[in-house]
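Milestone 3.1: sequence recovery, worked example.
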């Protein structure tokens, strides 16, 4: 036998609002003391029905108020699409990453550190090590070759020759 719901008066819905929030409120965007499901169990109805009742009452009593959905409602959230991947990296950015000057500057850095350095120069773009590896692979850059060809700063070239002689 299906359940039949009795008609609930405005006074009863006001009491329901007082149970849920501890006082009469104009919008559902306040901290609730009880969930809709708990109140529904007390009154013998579903939590969704409880929600419909108090939202309808709030619109009835305060039509000028902007009745918004509670934060924990089932509203579909539209996330901003992350823009990762090789297709979102322009040719200029790829050229910067694979240029000999940049590779010389990043000689002793890990891929993660190189990604951080790239993000500091281009705050609108963020790449991860796997994408950097993909860029290197596309342009034929080998990380091992970069790491072994460490470059001495121009002002230290004379000292480096002396150090090499002393080490032998």
């Amino acid at each position: 036998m299906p359940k039949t719901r009795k008609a609930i008066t405005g006074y009863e819905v006001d009491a329901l609002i007082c149970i849920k929030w501890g006082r009469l409120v104009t919008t559902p965007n306040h901290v609730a003391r009880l969930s809709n499901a708990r109140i529904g169990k007390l009154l013998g109805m579903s939590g969704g029905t409880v929600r419909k009742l108090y939202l309808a009452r709030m619109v009835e009593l305060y039509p000028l108020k902007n009745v918004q959905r509670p934060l924990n409602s089932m509203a579909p959230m539209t996330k901003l699409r992350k823009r990762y991947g090789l297709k979102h990296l322009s040719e200029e950015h790829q050229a910067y990453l694979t240029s000999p000057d940049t590779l010389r500057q990043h000689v002793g850095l890990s891929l993660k550190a190189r990604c951080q350095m790239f993000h500091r120069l281009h705050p609108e773009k963020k790449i991860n090590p796997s994408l950097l590896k993909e860029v290197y692979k596309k342009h034929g850059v080998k990380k091992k070759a970069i790491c072994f060809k460490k470059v001495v700063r121009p002002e230290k070239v004379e000292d480096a020759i002396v150090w090499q002689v002393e080490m032998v």
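Residues 47-61 form the longest helix (15 residues). Residues 86-167 form one domain.
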